[in-house]
């Protein structure tokens, strides 16, 4: 019954088209990046996958904002088995891949390498209507198609941060971050970390946009 209600919500959102605002002109004269809404059946299948993963989430209505920023076929994750800060709208494929990464990638890595479990993730957010740093191209965050993770909080009290741990003094923490980075690269289309540029020195950026690209 709950799944039927979710599917109905998605179909209604697809028909209504969501909130629209006039797009802002680009200063460089080029047309803004955009992405069509996913087919309702594709979103419905993704929502069913999320249910199968045993997570709690809210499906969100499609929304279009100024500057071609959108949140289409998006959800908000409420409970994936451990708290994650700052999660807003994210496309269902990002939410599904992120959940799988947490359950099957980073949690096993924490147990094997650090001998403990992750009890909280600190995120730097999901949707944000902005361009890529140093570029005029729209960020995948502007399409609710990305998530940034900065800190892994462990059951034994350790805070493994990308900023301090990537090249830090602890060999265990360096290994853990390298392993979860590689694990993300096997799942997401694009993964960017401190080795990519200074803008990513303090977090792992993961999205389901262009790619594959792992750095």
Write the layout of secondary structure elements.
Elements: H1 2-16, H2 40-52, E1 56-59, E2 63-64, E3 70-71, E4 74-79, E5 90-91, H3 92-114, E6 118-125, E7 146-154, E8 159-161, H4 162-165, H5 171-185, E9 190-192, E10 204-207, E11 213-214
Parallel strand pairs: 9-11
Antiparallel strand pairs: 1-4, 2-3, 4-5, 6-7, 7-8, 7-10, 9-10
How would you characterize the overall build of this protein?
With about 220 residues, the protein is α+β, with helices and mostly antiparallel strands. Helices cover about 35% and strands about 20% of the residues. It contains five helices and eleven strands, in the order ααβββββαβββααβββ. The strands form three sheets. Strands 6, 7, 8, 9, 10 and 11 form a six-stranded mixed β-sheet that branches. A hairpin with a 5-residue loop joins β2 (about 65) and β3. α1 (about 1-15) packs antiparallel against α2, α2 (about 40-50) packs parallel to α3 and α3 (about 90-115) runs antiparallel to α5 (about 170-185). It starts with a helix and ends with a strand. The model is unreliable at about 1-35 (pLDDT under 50). This is Extensin-like C-terminal domain-containing protein. Keywords: Signal.
């Amino acid at each position: 019954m709950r799944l039927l209600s979710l599917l109905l919500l998605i179909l209604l959102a697809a028909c209504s088209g969501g909130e629209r605002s006039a797009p802002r002109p680009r200063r460089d004269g080029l047309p803004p990046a955009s992405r069509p809404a996913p087919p309702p059946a594709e979103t419905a299948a993704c929502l069913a996958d999320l249910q199968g993963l045993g997570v709690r989430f809210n499906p969100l209505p499609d929304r279009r904002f100024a500057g071609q920023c959108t949140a289409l076929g998006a959800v908000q994750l409420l409970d994936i088995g451990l708290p994650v800060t700052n999660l807003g709208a994210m496309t269902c494929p990002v939410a599904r891949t992120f959940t799988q990464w947490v359950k099957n990638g980073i949690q096993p890595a924490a147990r094997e390498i650090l001998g403990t479990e992750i009890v909280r993730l600190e995120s730097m957010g999901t949707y944000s209507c902005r361009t890529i740093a140093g570029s005029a191209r729209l960020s995948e965050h502007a399409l609710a198609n990305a998530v940034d993770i900065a800190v892994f909080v462990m059951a034994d009290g350790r805070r493994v941060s990308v900023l301090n741990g990537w090249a830090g003094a602890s060999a265990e923490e360096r290994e853990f971050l390298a392993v979860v980075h590689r694990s993300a690269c096997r799942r997401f289309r694009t993964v960017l970390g401190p080795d990519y540029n200074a803008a990513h020195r303090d977090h792992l950026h993961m999205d389901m946009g262009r790619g594959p690209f792992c750095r």
